[in-house]
Write a structure and sequence with these properties.
CATH superfamily: NAD(P)-binding Rossmann-like Domain
Order of helices and strands: EHEEHEHHEHEEHEEHEEHEHHHH
Number of domains: 1
Bound molecules: nicotinamide-adenine-dinucleotide, thymidine-5'-diphosphate
Oligomer: single chain
Number of strands: 12
Helix content: 40-55%
Structural class: alpha/beta
Strand content: 15-25%
Largest sheet: 7 strands, parallel
Length: 349
């Protein structure tokens, strides 16, 4: 029996990874460690929470004693580390929270693994990171695994720092690590501070759709379950010490993406064609807004045989359907802390 610690498993991507591992590997014991910050939500895991191979532990990765005790108590074979502060706009308001969780929290986990794993045979520490560590592209080019790091926001600087520590632990102590850097995810259970669920929620409620600057920034979007499948593959078959870029081969200008969401929502809600586009509102740009991200994922494609499976039109439709069918999920989040955050971010833009 293998014991796998998944951190941040109550969050957006983490919950999809936990579900995949719990369902696919009945012989594993899956521990979901999550602090349940504003972004952590156990409602994401209702369908699997009673399975025998799953347990949830509430805890903070910045708490050194707690993390060390956890590694002493459980015989952990592998770590899939997703816990992080993940939203760029929040990082601009409060960088320290990002340094604490993303940097210190990651180093706590690395240290605990190093200390408790006297023998590294069969062990694996998998760190989940972002393409944002590579900085911002112009019209041309794509991020490769060899692209020099050039993080531009407090969020990406903290993630870059954590990536460096993971590599340093491999280089210095031979800790068996793998890292992936993935492009923007979308799909069910994403907290509605991020562009796609925020736009869906606002269209539903006929609220303005805040597009930063001119809406010309470009992101490469990947359906979250395709990311979870890539994580499964890299965790089991990726080469120790290696980095793999993961992307959707799916670049969209923000304004075109928002218009596509308007079209799908109008169809779904049986509103007249063009109705939701009227809600688009150009607002003050994000400080230091990265222009373009684009991932070259040919390494994971050729070495591990991964491919993004769901095309964007169907992915967007599935996502919209999910949010419209799960009104309770959205309402539980939107009433509460998120309401204050939303007012603070958008009232003065
Ligand atoms: P999220 O914000 O939805 O979830 C983060 C989870 O981590 C939450 O459940 C939260 O409660 C937990 N958490 C936060 N601080 C913690 C702490 N101190 N201790 C324990 N748990 C804590 O994030 P996400 O979008 O699911 O991203 C997951 C990971 O994937 C992050 O490491 C992020 O950098 C990375 N990533 C995200 C994207 C994306 O598009 N969302 C793309 C590439 C990489
Ligand atoms: P986001 O979902 O926050 O992801 P990231 O900043 O990590 O890429 O934003 C995606 C893009 O959408 C980014 O270019 C910023 C832009 N954006 C808006 O135009 N309006 C919004 O309200 C939000 C949240 C984002």
């Amino acid at each position: 029996m293998k014991t796998i610690l998944i951190t941040g498993g109550a969050g957006f991507i983490g919950s999809h990874v936990v579900r995949l591992f719990v369902n696919k590997y009945p012989d594993y014991s899956i521990i979901n460690l999550d602090a349940l910050t504003y972004a952590g939500n156990l409602e994401n895991l209702r369908d699997i929470e009673t399975q025998n191979n799953y347990q949830f532990i509430k805890g903070d990765i910045t708490d050194i004693d707690f993390i060390n005790n956890l590694f002493t108590k459980y015989n952990i074979d592998g770590v899939v580390h997703l816990a992080a502060e993940s939203h760029v706009d929040r990082s601009i308001e409060d960088p320290m929270a990002f340094i604490n969780t993303n940097v210190l929290g990651t180093v706590n986990l690395l240290n605990a693994a190093k200390e408790s794993w006297k023998n590294f045979e069969g062990k694996r520490f998998y760190h989940i990171s972002t393409d944002e560590v590579y900085g911002s592209l112009g019209d041309e080019g794509m991020f490769l695994e060899t692209t020099a790091y050039d993080p531009k926001s407090p969020y990406s600087a903290a993630k870059a720092s954590s990536d460096h520590f993971v590599r340093a632990y491999h280089n210095t102590y031979k800790l068996p690590v793998v890292i992936t850097n993935c492009s923007n995810n979308y799909g069910p259970n994403q907290f509605p501070e991020k562009l796609i669920p925020l736009v869906i929620n606002n269209i539903k409620n006929k609220k303005p759709l805040p597009v930063y600057g001119k809406g010309e920034n470009i992101r490469d979007w990947l359906y979250v379950e395709d990311h979870a499948k890539a994580i499964d593959l890299v965790f089991h078959q990726g080469t120790i010490g290696e980095t793999y870029n993961i992307g959707g081969k799916n670049e969209w200008k923000n304004i075109d993406l928002v218009r596509a969401l308007c079209r799908v929502m109008d169809e779904n809600l049986q509103r007249p064609n063009g109705e939701s586009e009227k809600l688009i509102t150009f607002v003050k740009d994000r400080a230091g807004h990265d222009l373009r991200y684009a991932i070259d994922c040919s390494k994971i494609v050729s070495e591990l045989g991964w491919q993004p499976e769901l095309d964007f039109e169907n992915g967007i439709r599935k996502t919209v359907d999910w949010y419209l069918e799960n009104e309770d999920w959205l309402e539980h989040i939107v009433s509460g802390e998120y309401e204050n955050y939303y007012k603070q971010q958008y009232n003065n833009r």
